[in-house]
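Title: [Solved] GNAT family N-acetyltransferase 3D structure

Original question kept below for reference.
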Amino acid sequence: MNLDEGDLNEYHVSMLATLESYRGNGLGQKLLTYAEQLALNKNFTHISLTVDVEKVPAQRLYKKQGYQFIGETGQGDYQYYKMRKSLKLLYLK
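Solution (posted by the thread starter after getting help):
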């Protein structure tokens, strides 16, 4: 399946997952922070990802980390939300 994912001017996280037994321990947050640092080191000002429309806990994590819904993508039974975060704010902190 071909998804409409990240734009050319943004760092796109194509896959982020944790084993169920490790969820709730802050590992997802640490992985996101690491990806954001990689993006900043490569001079990107935005980072994006896609999340399954049914993965509400993951959506909550991404929203808590500052990601915003920007659209949808997918085909048939495979529907995803596109989310993006501006990294420019990190420079100001």
